[in-house]
Amino acid sequence: MNTSTNTPVVMALSGADPTGGAGVQADIETIASLGCHAAPIITSVTAQDTTNVVDTTQINEHFIIQQARVVLEDMNIAAIKIGLIESDTTAMAIHTLLTDYKNIPVVLDPIIIAGGGKVLANEDVVDAINTLLVPLATIVTPNSDETRNLAPEGDTLDACAMALLERGTHYVLVTGTHEKTDKVCNVLYGNNRKLDTHSWPRLPDQYHGSGCTLSSAIAANIARGQDIVSATHQAQEYTWKCLQGARQLGMGQKIPNRFHWL
Questions:
Q1: Does residue 50 contact residue 208 with C-beta atoms inside 8 Å?
Q2: pLDDT tens profile 82-138
Q3: What is the pTM of this model?
Q4: Do 186 and 233 touch, CB atoms closer than 8 A?
Q5: Structural domains present in the chain
Q6: Are 52 and 114 in contact (CB under 8 A)?
Q7: In this model, does residue 40 exceed pLDDT 70?
Q8: I want to staple 160 with a disulfide (CB 3.0 to 4.6 A). Which of 33, 37, 154, 213 is the partner?
Q9: How many of the other CB atoms lie within 10 Å of CB of 241?
Q10: 58 forms bridges with which residues in the sheet?
């Protein structure tokens, strides 16, 4: 029996990573692992290893729109996940798409600094993300450092998250991997308050593509019909297991095992 029409499709807009550990490759693996089909839209091409990003080349914004539109007109997209955005023109292109397809849930993973320290989004890009994309996102999934970068007016992480909600997004999931705490504490905000808090044992290593894995897992769970609280909780559990089973494939960060259940 052909069951293809029962497979949710998730569109993932992100950069290409030649290590296969992060970016759109991480999106594809995660989305597939969770029973959905990935429709990848490349926003930039990167030269990077498991230690840091060396260089990037952004894709022309008109071609980003063209890539996405032909798929959006052909497939029933159940969720959109947005990752690496290198320029304000890329943000404007994605804004154009989102305003034309307003009924599709959007997971925005604002990547500002690579795991190795290279800045991937300057002030203009951060402003464009705040102005053009956060208001159209169903949920934004920054780590604590990205949260402070996106909402510097807040004097606490709670205040920063509330500022992002005021910009228009429905939910914010702040992840605590960058905080100096014994456990990793991830907090979900919505409706002008904290909705959910989950603490996870802090694993000893560094991981390449953990944020991409989490945000893509949330998008896949939403595409499968889960509510935000369930989607974020199950995505955290899935991501933690991916990191627990991560493999040392290069000389830098470990790569999550997104098919750990096999």
A1: yes
A2: 999 989 999 999 999 999 999 999 999 998 876 666 667 788 999 999 999 999 999
A3: 0.95
A4: no
A5: 8-140+204-244 (3.40.1190.20)
A6: yes
A7: yes
A8: 154
A9: 15
A10: 44
